[in-house]
Amino acid sequence: MKTDGNSNYYLGRLDKYWKQFGRLFQSSSKILPKYLDASLTENVIAETKSEFRIVLSELPFIGGDKYMLTFTFVSSAVALAYIRVLEKHGLSVDTIGIVLNEVYDDVFTSLPGFIQWLLKWSEFSSNRQNKIKAFAKESQLREYPGNWVMEYVEGNGIDFDFGCNYTECATLKFFQKMRAEKYMPYVCVMDLTYSRALHTGLHRTTTLFYGGPYCDFRYKKNDTSLPGLPLEDLPEYKNRRT
User: Fold this and answer.
1) pTM over 0.70
2) Which one of 22, 40, 135, 199 is most buried, counting C-beta atoms within 10 A?
3) Residue 7 reports pLDDT greater than 80
């Protein structure tokens, strides 16, 4: 098992990551004025970049380019940086959760139709499936303690096309370390927000955060995911054990 170190991997890519999140902050500029004085919007973006550097310095190394979920992990880091800044501006936990999901929804629903189609097609492509299966197998080795651990679940094409059972979640472990666990329900439902925008049909009935044995992701092409909010309407919330 390797250590959680090597934060220089992320910091050396800070500017690259920030450019990749450009659309996120375009959407933030549209959504945030509903919840915060419009004159502060640009301040929030600048403050988030400074906070992002701090959060990246704490982000455990999980294999870098070797692993397909590294960018997902970095995305959770920018979400935490954004959360911290919104906290400083006095927004409540629930309001921050709403902002996160409205921003994320705008990012993907505002994409050109062809890009939306391409992302959906990629999700179910044989190349993507092979990568998920390979990652699932490697994750069982627990090479990096901060990483995800998961199993691939074959679909039958009727109930679902494919699935994943995550028995360890890198984002949950990191948010616990950063004492931001209370935001995890809102971060988790961003998966549903993404899927709903692209019609990849994600359904989930249990999560690690709510005390389940794993997070059960099940995907059905062209199906519609539940809205991520309100939390209380979700099966994963209704089935909570904590």
Assistant:
1) yes
2) 135
3) no
